[in-house]
Design a protein that fits this description.
The chain contains 22 helices and 21 strands. It is an alpha/beta fold. It has an eight-stranded mixed barrel, surrounded by four helices. A five-stranded parallel β-sheet has the order 2-1-3-4-5, sandwiched between helices. It has a five-stranded mixed β-sheet with strand order 7-8-6-11-12, sandwiched between helices. The protein binds ligand C2E and calcium ion (CA) (2 copies). One calcium ion binds next to strand 18.
Length: 583
């Protein structure tokens, strides 16, 4: 509402009779600020330069009539209230005027009291109109703001505020158009956190999100503003470099990104190291449209992960095929977990002196409905990478424990049961709890269970490994180091690990009878192990010669085709009987 400087309402009086103008002005100027005009045209002119809350207009004017004036007033100033002045003979027309938008009328001869009341009411109505309009504009603004928010959200990731895949594809398509027109190259990078499922399983979802935010921040820091970074689903990020001169530009960029992601992430007050993989596709070499560019960058990423992660990979034609094959195997493996297509085989461990069964190792087999028996060497790495090793490993452990319990109930003395635990299983925070749970559930004495771990899984996080091993030891479970000799750990490091058994890798055993270097190393290992009071077992023993040799140099037990391949539980029972182990 625009009042004059004293806060009075502005009223415009339009009447062609000077007497009426004067009278009204006199009555109203005490309370209000009044201006007059003797024609509708002049009145409208005044309205153009000034704001009036109220217009008092005579119905009959020379030229444009008061009624004709109404729509013009409303056009110019929608909140201005109009009141007609009518003679007795024009009452009918005053009512008509109200139909088209006048608020009220006052009759001639003018009645002082009536005019004051009518003007006050009209001004109140004006205030209401203004309030209503204000409300409406606010509402409009709110709707506009919310709409903008919704539009923003549909093109951005709310967690990181980065563009999402929709916006990315849009920018990619624009960039491809430009690159095609100007004949330059462009690149898209696909980045993902290695083994993110495992990381987020251990951290919990909240800290997983924190980690993603930190990754987004570091990525933004590593690249210039001209590079679009987007967050796709889960732990996947995409980057668009809309113009490159050579692949060296990209190698430099990925190095910068890796450098920025290298130092540890602080999540939940602890430092964690994570590695990343990047897949790269180039225009025009690897694709001409956005779908092909995306698909090929994703195939390159899958290849980078297959190679163990922590690296980048340019797209190579043909890797799509590998990626598809892998995806198929992964899907099959998921189904296998649901349908329990696995079976546990057992391989006996033999005492070198008595040649009696001293224990057995559980080795998983996948009974694929079409492909038949699949060896773990083919699917364990994939199960590791996808996290499926956790349910598979738990299933193997439970199954083998029940089997051994069953044999004990039947009177067989099976000796110790060994179960393989892969790196990813070992990294589970609640591993000890899970194993305890299964052992207790089955009712197996913890001392009859042995876990086989590789050097590399223990070395990933030596401090945490020592803790987990100590907890297992406390519970009574034994631990052996599998494939010993193939890792890089120094022998002295062994002293610090609470372990019980060393398993010499089969690669040493296979050459033991003809490679003197190997002999020296095996001898050294056995001596050291015995000094540390560790038992030594050799795996992959295939010949009598190898066994004789191992016996001579003080090996305690052996395992290998020489005595028996891994067999199913039925065949294992027969092995027992032949080995005179039944009571
Ligand atoms: P590993 O733990 O080193 O197991 C020994 C492998 O050598 C087994 O292969 C076994 O069948 C094979 N082997 C035994 N004796 C001989 C021999 O005299 N000569 C030769 N050439 N080979 C012999 P398999 O069963 O194919 O298992 C391969 C690997 O898969 C295992 O290596 C282990 O790392 C992994 N694995 C098997 N079962 C499981 C499981 O339940 N959980 C986990 N996490 N890993 C498993
Ligand atoms: Ca093993
Ligand atoms: Ca082994």
């Amino acid at each position: 509402m625009q009042n004059d400087e004293y806060g009075k309402a502005n009223i415009l009086i339009v009447d062609d009779e000077p007497f009426v103008r004067k009278l009204l002005e006199e009555i109203l100027s005490e309370k209000y600020c009044c201006q007059t005009a003797d024609s509708a045209e002049k009145g409208l002119n005044l309205l153009q330069s000034e704001n009036f809350q109220l217009v008092l207009a005579d119905i009959n004017l020379g030229g444009m009539s008061g009624i004709e004036m109404i729509p013009h007033v409303h056009n110019q100033s929608p909140d201005t209230v109009i009141m007609m002045i009518s003679g007795e003979q024009t009452i009918e027309r005053a009512i008509q005027a109200m139909r088209i938008g006048a608020f009220d009328y006052i009759g001639k001869p003018l009645d002082l009291g009536h005019i004051e009341v009518a003007v006050e009411r009209a001004l109140e109505h004006h205030s209401l109109l203004v309030a209503k309009r204000l409300h409406e504009t606010k509402l409009e603004e709110l709707v506009k703001q919310r709409t903008e928010e919704l539009i923003y959200l549909s093109y951005h990731d709310p967690l990181t505020n980065l563009p999402n895949s929709i916006l990315f594809e849009d920018r990619l398509s624009q960039a491809l158009y430009q690159a095609n027109r100007n004949k330059h190259r462009l690149a898209m990078l696909y980045l993902s956190i290695d083994r993110f499922n495992m990381v987020s399983d251990t951290l919990g979802p909240k800290h997983g999100y924190e980690l993603l935010k930190e990754v987004a921040a570091r990525l933004t820091e590593s690249v210039g503003e001209e590079i679009t970074i987007a967050r796709f689903e889960g732990d996947e990020f995409a980057m668009l470099v809309s113009q490159i001169d050579s692949t060296d530009d990209i190698i430099e960029l990925t190095n910068r990104i890796f450098e920025n992601l290298e130092y540890p992430f602080v999540v939940d007050d602890s430092e964690i190291f994570i590695s990343f993989s990047i897949g790269i596709s180039l225009f025009p070499d690897d694709g001409k449209d956005e779908q092909t560019m995306l698909k090929n960058a994703s195939a390159a990423l899958a290849r980078a992960k297959e190679k163990g992660g922590g690296n980048f990979q340019f797209y190579i034609p043909g890797i799509n095929h590998q990626a598809r094959k892998r995806l198929m195997l992964e899907n099959n493996l998921r189904r296998a977990v649901e349908n329990q297509e696995f079976e546990v085989y057992y391989q006996p461990k033999i005492d070198v002196w008595t040649e009696k069964i001293a224990g057995l190792e559980a080795l998983v087999r996948w009974n694929h409905p079409e492909m038949g028996l699949i060896s773990p060497a083919e699917f364990i790495p994939l199960a590791e990478e996808t996290g499926l090793i956790i349910p598979i490993g738990n299933w193997v452990l439970r199954n083998a424990c029940y089997q051994v319990k069953d044999w004990e109930n039947k009177g067989f003395r099976t000796g110790r049961l060994s179960v393989n635990i892969s790196a990813r299983q070992f990294e589970q925070r609640d591993l000890v709890q899970i194993i305890k749970g299964i052992v207790d559930e089955v009712g197996l004495p913890p001392g009859s269970l042995e876990l086989e771990l590789t050097e590399s899984s223990l070395m990933k996080n030596p401090q945490a490994s020592i803790q987990t091993l100590s907890k297992l030891k406390e519970f009574g479970i034994l631990v052996s180091i599998d494939d010993f000799g193939t890792g890089y750990s120094s022998l002295s490091y062994l002293q610090r690990l609470p372990i019980d058994i060393l398993k010499i890798d089969q690669s040493f055993v296979s050459e033991i009878t003809n490679n003197p270097d190997n002999v020296a190393l095996v001898l050294a290992i056995i001596e050291l192990a015995h000094n540390l009071r560790l038992q030594v077992i050799a795996e992959g023993v295939e010949t009598a010669g190898q066994l004789d040799f191992l016996r001579d140099i003080g090996c305690d037990e052996f395992q290998g085709y020489y005595f028996s391949k891994p067999v199913n539980s039925e065949s294992f029972e027969r092995l027992f009987l032949m080995n005179h182990q039944s009571v």
